[in-house]
Design a protein that fits this description.
Shape: globular
Strand content: 15-25%
Number of strands: 10
Helix content: 25-40%
Number of helices: 8
Oligomer: single chain
Largest sheet: 8 strands, mixed
Distance between the termini: 27 Å
């Protein structure tokens, strides 16, 4: 495993579809973000949280960093994570992904050699919040953020990316449950049945 990687849990979204802060929505009696923390803890890598409400997230016992650039969406959160980390690369995951698969994450960390990012693709769509970014991405990322080009997929087209297809992903996560996002109360209900 590449130890020059920090895990960043992005928790800066507005949670509009959930109706309340989804990080702390309860799944089987525990906050969604706690499920994420528990899954990534297996990797024994430095872990940080990107969130603007520092006091609320400090109770989780991990370093919390607010957005370096305000109102820049997920890409802004990734930029903050890269800026804040002490390592060469950051594995970015979302706070609403309670079924992360440590074996799959470990595999992704082995693929960073010679590229700017390692990006899983599900149904031909890049999974930007399940991706490893190298610090070499910072200058271009800053440029696009300053131009308000906030789509992670658009940004990735400018970089040297290793995409990981479904066949490879399914070797570690046969049902691709890792990529389940809990955005709404209905999603939360479905997630209850998967645990």
């Amino acid at each position: 495993m590449n130890n020059a990687i920090t895990i960043a849990i992005l928790a800066g979204g507005h949670s509009e579809r959930m109706g309340s802060d989804k990080s702390f929505a309860l799944l089987r009696g525990r906050p969604l973000i706690q499920h994420v923390i528990d899954h990534v803890a297996v990797l024994a890598l430095p872990t940080i949280i990107i969130a603007n409400d520092i006091a609320r997230y400090q109770v989780l016992g991990l370093p919390v960093f607010p957005d370096a650039l305000a109102d820049k969406g997920s890409l802004g959160g990734i930029y903050t994570a890269l800026s804040a980390s002490q390592t060469d690369a950051v594995l970015c995951v979302a706070c609403d992904m309670p079924f992360l698969n440590p074996d799959l994450l470990r595999y992704l960390t082995t693929l960073l050699q010679g590229v700017d990012a390692v990006v899983p693709q599900v149904e031909d769509r890049p999974q930007g919040l399940h991706t490893i970014f190298h610090k070499a991405c910072l200058p271009t990322m800053r440029e696009v953020l300053e131009q308000d080009q906030l789509k992670v997929g658009d940004y990735l087209r400018q970089m040297h990316v290793r995409y990981v297809g479904e066949n490879d992903l399914r070797r570690y996560d046969p049902d691709l449950q890792s990529f389940t996002n809990v955005n709404t109360p209905a999603d939360l209900q479905r997630a209850e049945s998967l645990i």
